[in-house]
Amino acid sequence: MISNLGAVLLIVSFLTTCSTLFLYIKNNIIQKSSIYLQFFLFYKVSFYLILFSFFVLIVCFAISDFSIISVYENSHTDKPLFYKISAAWGNHEGSMLLFILVISLYGILFLLNSKNINDSLRACTIFFQSIIQLIFLSFLIFTSNPFSKIFPVPVQGLGLNPILQDPLLAIHPPFLYLGYVGFSLVFSLLLAALILKQYNSRWASIAKKWIMLPWSFLSFGIGLGSFWAYYELGWGGYWFWDPVENASLMPWIASTALIHSIVVMEKLKKLFAWTAILTILTFILSLFGTFLVRSGVLNSVHAFANDPERGVYILFIITIITLGSLIIYILKFPKESVNNNSFALFSRDFSILLNNYFLIFILTVVIVGTTYPILLSVFTGETISVGPQYYNTILAPFIFIFLILMAMGPLMKWNGNSLISIKQKIFSFFIVSIFLTILISLYLSRYNFIFLLGVLCSVYLIVSVFYEIVMSKKTFFTKQNFSRLFSHLGFGLLILAITLNHFFSKEINAKIHLGESFFKQGIKINFLKSESSKEKNFEELFGIYKITKDNKTFILKPSVRKYKQPQQFTSETSIQRDGLSDVYIAMDYAGDPSMGMGVRFYYNYFVRLIWISFALITIGGIVSFVRRGNEKTI
Amino acid sequence: MKKLFKISLLVSVTVISFVIFYYSLKANNKNNPNIMLNKPLPAIELTSLVNAHLKQELPLINRDKYYLINIWSSWCVPCREEHPILMKLKDKIKIYGINYKDKKTNATAFLNKLGNPFYFTGSDKDGSISIEIGAYGIPETYVVNSQGLIIFKHVGPLNKKIYLRISEIIK
Prior knowledge:
heterodimer; A: 3 domains; 18 helices; 10 strands; 11% strand; flat; B: alpha/beta; Glutaredoxin; 2 domains; seven-stranded mixed beta sheet; elongated
């Protein structure tokens, strides 16, 4: 019964969105009225309908209503309630509904938080947002309806992929969606401003907060995903340059560039065209990411929801949106804004422009690495995969220069053209960071050139951020760049942590028999005993290991789980803290524990600093959004 | 003119990328876990569903040119859906069924009602045989050649397209 309600709600929300568009076209385009009450009301109704149908889907999953195909295929009565609910968006259909809900949610948030903007711009933004909403609603209803029925009704479901049965992963997709789907709003805002000829520096100050919000969620979502991969997949690493990880990284890089260029546009009335292009690029890369993940062009750990047929539709949607938006841009871009594009060499705006060049370079490297295997397989039929080696080798030297720029840029003045006033600072930071780098390398007794360079550059950024914090402590909480300091500090720490982790982590693979021990690289692993237990939806075999490193002992308890539905093995890692580092062990799938268990042991140096820096980057974004949210003047 | 040029450039670039990615979807149709594809079928011993003394060992080397392995269950709805296709295939090729985690009575009732396409039906009460040959979910269908190599694998119910592809392979 309730499943019918969901299907009906979806169709009604589709019709409501249609009538929203119709209302706008009839009243505001044809009759040129400037009263939007009815239009806004209809949009709100469509949001509540989508919200309600998502709620119905969750209820269907919670009560295991197997008359719905997607419940049957992705759930099972033996599953804990939490995973029953998260299974609602752990599959293609449900996650597309969530996708639409997020589009609509951003529309509503904008509607409620934009009372200080003129109504015509608001309405036109909501108009474009409804178009996007309608496109995806029709995609959902016609190709992947989450409420499709199955008859006869099965007694039991097939179960959720066990590696998705993890509390972090349950919340990871919603955050990613709040991130990259959220860019739809600033995209609509751009198109509306172009059409209404309101694309100016005031637009930039309105739009900025609508970039900061999804950007923060996306940063957080990427961090969560990386953390999940770290402890659930059991490969010991936090980032694999997997195409699906890249899919979320691409819009992140584009939006980071956008955040910087929009500041220049707001403050100095420059970079108009560039900002518009970045806005479009960010949203299109978000959609492209969805295409990569959902269509089955990729083979990856994440590719669990593949269907080439759907891929064609998503591809079609991307093409339409790309063409539509770029044609609007070409036809409507204000000519008069192009004249002011001169940059002085030592100005803050120029360093932001350089930063943008670097980000675009990084973005290009990631796009090439992600799509090259796809293109190659189309033209030659060969399948290859691009590994971390490619990214690390190409990106490392540029990231180092990028860090120096990030430290020096904020010291310069807008439109300034001299280094003299800041020469002293640049020089003294340099001395301090060389000193710190020497201390670090002496302490760790490692003198590799790349290592020293990585530490030096990231320490340089960290030092400059600390200098700013110390110097402006009185006005710290009211000052504009509070959020930038957080994010930049986070990025500096991130690169420092990655460098340390890269050079000091250890990996040991061994097969150890029960009661025996294994010694390598100064680490002793002792297989003490094994235990087994039975849970509701899986059986679990634990191994208990004693690790001895530098006179410290750790007791770790990794396990292998055998899930019943669907039948699949997963390896549960066991992790213990050692300062900011982790002692990490995972067992391989094996039959009889008395025959010896394969273990993978990792000592992950300074890995916790990576999570801390992700948090700092996110906090920076949120602070910026909150502060801008409180500004009444725009 | 400049605008027109820009727009036509844009349209052509977008259309070209569309076409390339469209072909990538067609070319890269690997939406099933192909871990076992082109690998030898692991040695398994099937116990007949109807008679516990009747056994059948697989793979059969140099016996038939090709044979089919189908994993199914009476409680599995997509299996019911693909059943007519198996009935069509049974005259072309020997089909070994693996009855996955099923009750004997339900399984025999299923076959009595819808017809029995299987040359031999083995019972896999605990699902261990299916896991051994790399099954991911049911239904699943494998084409094995005379050398014991899995040359084709399909996850999910058979449809007309797959039917034609299998007929092509075994021709």
